[in-house]
Amino acid sequence: MNAYVGTATSRVDGRAKVTGAAKYAGEFTVDGLVHGFVVEATIPRGRIARLDTSEALKVTGVLDVLTHAHRPPLADKVEAWKDEVAPDEGSPFRPLYDDIIKFNGQPIALVVATEWETAKFAATLVRVEYQEDHTFATELETGRNRATEVKRPHEPRGDAAGALAGAAMRHEADYFVPTEHHNPMELFATTAVWDGNGRLTVYDKTQGVLNVHRYLCGVLDKQPDEIRVLSPYVGGAFGSGLRPQYQVVLATLGALALKRSVRVVLTRQQMYGLGYRPATIEHVGLGAKPDGALEAVMHEATAVTSRYEDFARNDSGWAEQLYKSRNSHYSHKVVRLDVSTPCDMRAPGAASGVCALECAMDELAVALKLDPIELRLKCYSDRDQSEDLPYTSKQLRECYARGAEAFGWSKRNPAARSMRDDKELVGWGMATGVWEALQMPVAVRIVLTANGHAEVFCAASDIGTGTYTIVAQVAADALGLPIENISVKLADSTLPQAPVEGGSWMAASSAHAVLGAAEDIRQELARLASAMPSSPLAGIDAAEVILVDGTIASNGEKSRAVPITDAMRYGKLERIEKHKLNHFAEDKSHARNTHSAVFAEVKVDEQLGVIRVTRVVSAVAAGRILNTKTGRSQIMGGVVWGIGMALHEETVMDHRFGRIMNANIAEYHIPVNADIHDIDVIFVDERDDHINRLGVKGLGEIGIVGVPAAIANAVYHATGKRIRRFPITLDKLLT
Amino acid sequence: MEQSDWPTVGREWRAETGALSPAGLTSQLGLHRRENDMADVANQVANRIPTNLVVNGVRRTLDLVPWTTLLDALRDHLALTGTKKGCDHGQCGACTVLVDGRRVNSCLTLAVMTDGAEITTIEGLARDGALHPLQQAFIDHDAFQCGYCTPGQICSAAGLLAEGRAGDADEIRELMSGNLCRCGAYPNIVAAIQQAVGRP
């Protein structure tokens, strides 16, 4: 029964969020709570020669200043610092570990005081002298010649270089995607509550409480039952909360040092010392026959990483899923620089790599005088070429068709600079999006009580993605209860296991864990109901029983039913509790992906170079949509991110100092309300009986992929100018 | 503003170091800033100012160090954490509250400046358990995801409605652009405000 799954159910945590009742990591308070303020390094590379905290310590209200030379013990072994999302290669950053400076903005001291204002002021009194190492480097492009190949997303097929050189039509170019920062609205924060005897309850801004729990146990040398991590509400993260961030170490270290509860909230500026989407040069080469059939695809990504960890994602391999070509070659290189390690940021790899690929496809279409959709259909791949596998489902053709129809693509004049609206140039562009449909083991516990209410428990986080709501929907349907009777408890390290919330895997993964536990409850209720004296379900096979409208009912004949509350009373059960760890069957027979077709309209003021994105249509094929309301919002949010990536977002480094120049949310531009106009989200019907029982694929990433390219292609169509260096700011159009 | 009104830090380091060198700039800037701070405020940490606020209809008296912002007074001193800190620099709007009915960034307002003022925060919008029409509209239109900017968006929208300027979608977009939403719920925020205005 699907009373809720697939509907536009409002968020179950909505009331908490619109009334201010929802509490985020830096908002939990206890008696005696004190506040830490971080002091950061102001050089990119070197050593701390002298760190004088005496003046800071003189300020009334300052309790202590922690530094590498004055702190409780931290783990020495690299393994202890490797969280579950840490890159394989390298040694993670350790805050306040030693005197070595690895990046500008690195935390070097924590001033703890009774009030936040006092700690912030005293932090300005910490005197630091450095032994600077002026050999630092922070610029990707000048470091390109010393890039190291670290990854091949797929093995090469055929002779791509030869086929490219011999192709009738060839397009080859570099596309540059700058460093971008997540900038979730919530500041990174941790409240470490001192529970006595070295035990801590840690409220942390994280996408994975279990990841942080394991990490803290390792770096602080604690037993699992000495630390509990919670993140009931997360004010956005977009990947920045996948790895434990340094404030959680500083806050817990402070609590252990002072034997008091400590809160550490980073400033917006300090958050630019955390991870980011790495600046990347995407080199794409496409060779085609005159009719558009691809002969060769080459894609090489060269991206920033730190000197201490090799962060690399799949930027360059996506053509393998999208476009048929007999010859292909994909690689990923890194340039190690004196910066902090990049981290996953919404659709890591794909957002940048597919952007370049889809701009290149547009350039090829222009050169071949083909409609961009026609070129993509000509090369359409029904199989994942890397493993030569069919897809569990791939309704990308339908995405092109539905998106084009909704957008009015057939009215497009293909010539650049051919369309106008009064004084503005009008451009229409399109692009393809693709992401993986991943799923992970997740466990849930469901407790059904005799009053017909159920509680669902899981360690998974809801970072705004809607996990609370879809878990409640799936549980309500599976247990046959109204959604008001379901309560969901998430993001507590004492709850059943879940991986970090990321990669678009949580919807499918958590939903099937709920189904599994609910199935066990159904079995138990069926047993009770069939055993009741003069039961309408006497002797019924448990497989024939469903839970619906608060009853245990015969699947064939719903009037044969017993109220759940009656069955539990009969069994003298106050509660039925079931814990289930769901594993998805290993199946390498199919490729699993989500797809989209994105259409964008821009209007460009030619004198001023101002670009407005007036319309976006995103047609998405992502299996079954569990909640059309929150699902639409996720795609819409992804489109807004894509607009930011295309036109606004860029972290600018002054390479003379190795320091970020726009480390604030006024000079790092993100889209504001006035930048966003019509966004039309279309969910294309995509039945998928293969991927999992519900046919769910996940929506967190697919919304952004392809959007920046669709906009860049629209800008070309409007102006005749091909900007390959993102973001497309007005200065680039005017020169 | 006369040139002499600006802090002298920029000119001094140039005069002293002669050229733009990383070492010179970082150390000089740091030194000057610290010494100015010391001279101005080091002795004032313990000096507190009694401040009277009427928050959501309740009179509260606080003894605050003078540089405490209204935002920190609400969050840290009154435990009203519905008002959010997103930047502390007036750049994001997450801290928007109503002061005597006007929407302001509470992070740019010193608490002592609002002595005697009526403050309405997100916690004060619902009455007797009934949501404010804007709160209900935000739920109906899914005008948020993570929820962190939401109290500021709703308080800002309440101020906008009071200003009588939520005429059409373009006007709402423009006048709500001081409130950033990183989840990208903007079209839903506009739709929610239109619902609350009664002009869909």
TrEMBL record, chain A:
| Molecular function, one GO term | oxidoreductase activity
User: What are the residue boundaries of the Aldehyde oxidase/xanthine dehydrogenase a/b hammerhead domain, all occurrences included?
Assistant: 19-134
Database matches in InterPro entries? Ald_Oxase/Xan_DH_a/b, Ald_Oxase/Xan_DH_a/b_sf, Ald_Oxase/xanthine_DH-like, AldOxase/xan_DH_MoCoBD1, AldOxase/xan_DH_MoCoBD2, AldOxase/xan_DH_Mopterin-bd_sf
What highest taxon heads this organism's lineage?
Answer: Bacteria
One Pfam entry name = Ald_Xan_dh_C
Instruction: Note the SUPFAM superfamilies from the entry.
Output: CO dehydrogenase molybdoprotein N-domain-like (SSF54665), Molybdenum cofactor-binding domain (SSF56003)
**What PANTHER family does the database record attribute to this sequence?**
DEHYDROGENASE, XANTHINE DEHYDROGENASE
Q: What is this protein called?
A: Xanthine dehydrogenase family protein molybdopterin-binding subunit
Q: Which organism is it from?
A: Bradyrhizobium niftali
TrEMBL record, chain B:
GO MF, one term, reads: 2 iron, 2 sulfur cluster binding
- Can the keyword Transcription be found in this entry's annotation? no
Keyword tags: 2Fe-2S, Iron, Iron-sulfur, Metal-binding, Oxidoreductase
> Which residue range or ranges hold the 2Fe-2S ferredoxin-type domain?
49-125
Tell me the Pfam families matching this sequence. Fer2, Fer2_2
Check the record and name the PROSITE patterns matching this protein.
2FE2S_FER_1, 2FE2S_FER_2
Q: Which InterPro entries match?
A: 2Fe-2S-bd, 2Fe-2S-bd_dom_sf, 2Fe-2S_ferredoxin-like_sf, 2Fe-2S_ferredoxin-type, 2Fe2S_fd_BS, Aldehyde_Oxdr_Iron-Sulfur, Beta-grasp_dom_sf
Keyword Transmembrane helix included in the entry's annotation: no
What this protein is called in its record is (2Fe-2S)-binding protein
